[in-house]
Amino acid sequence: MNIVIRKAVESDVPQIISFTMNTFPWGDYVPRVIDGWVRDGTAYVALVNEEVVGVINLVLLPTGVAWLEGLRVKSTYRRHGVGTALTNYALDLAKAGGARYAMLMIAEWNNASHGLARKLSFRPVLNVYGGITRGSPALRVTDRDEIKRFVEEALDKTNGYFCSTVNHWVCTRADVDYVLSMTREVYISNGGVGFNGGFSVGKPTSPVRMEMLATERGDFEEYFGMYIVYELAL
After folding, report:
1. What dihedral angle (degrees, nearest 10) is formed by the CA atoms of 36, 210, 214, 224?
2. Of 81, 98, 200, 212, which sits most exposed with the smallest number of CB within 10 A?
3. Under 8 Å between Cβ of 220 and 204
């Protein structure tokens, strides 16, 4: 089977939506975001006989990490190497773009995707839990020196990884300066330390209802599940 991969264009969107709208029992987020990915020029598609049969999104982060997300393959073309071809294509682009690592996130139950990640030599580096927080009493910290201290402690606990749910879910290797550049305030409770970008080290912690990833399950108002973050050195 001849698989052709290229950057996605606007006319590809209807086909992408058609095979991603019911990926999971609850649907899929790709139809909601694919227009933006295409506008940003970060989405790539696989074609067989000019039919769009797969898609992946690649974001080059300022941390030297290439974030891969939204890998989807049309059901009638699964187990034909389309996912592998798309991922390898994205990895080649990441290397050419100067990325030192590639990272991606897979839901705990998605065995097929875990198998592909391991086949391509990705290794698990972080477990996170996703959902919508209830919003609960928490101390807000806005002093920059105090925030820096909490950032340093957080990165020490995660071995240098940091996540965000702003615009889209993303996890990356990070240093203190990078995290500080995106952090206005920190939320402190007995169960965890939350950051305004939608990440908690410990249990999900936020004084307001918001989408969040956390390193411990905790108590979400709406729980999405556990996810495993993988990394590959390029």
Report:
1. -70
2. 98
3. yes
CA distance 98 to 96: 5
- Pairing between β-strand 161-164 and β-strand 123-133 as defined by DSSP bridges: unpaired
Kindly report the number of other CB atoms within 10 A of residue 142's CB atom: 10
Indicate the pTM of the whole model.
0.94
Give counts: helices (H), strands (E), the chain: 6, 14
Contact 87, 211 (CB under 8 A): no
Q: What is the pLDDT of residues 174-229, one digit of tens each?
A: 999 999 999 999 999 988 999 999 999 999 999 999 999 999 999 999 999 999 99
Check if the beta carbon of residue 129 is closer than 8 Å to that of residue 220: yes
* 7 pLDDT higher than 90: yes
What CA–CA distances, in Å, run from 17 to 3, 40, 195, 201?
20, 17, 33, 34
Beta carbons within 8 Å of 3's beta carbon, 6+ residues apart: 46, 47, 48, 53, 81, 82, 85
Question: Dihedral of the CA atoms 17, 20, 21, 22 (nearest 10)?
Answer: 160
- For 60, the enclosing helix (H) or strand (E) is strand 51-60
If one counts every other C-beta atom within 10 angstroms of the C-beta of residue 120, the result is 16
Q: With contact defined as beta carbons under 8 Å apart, do 178 and 203 qualify?
A: no
Q: What is the pLDDT of residues 35-66, one digit of tens each?
A: 999 999 999 999 999 999 999 999 999 999 99
Q: Exposure of 23 by Cβ count < 10 A (0-12 exposed, 13-18 middle, 19+ buried)?
A: middle
pLDDT digits (tens, 9 = 90+) for 58-79: 999 999 999 999 999 999 999 8
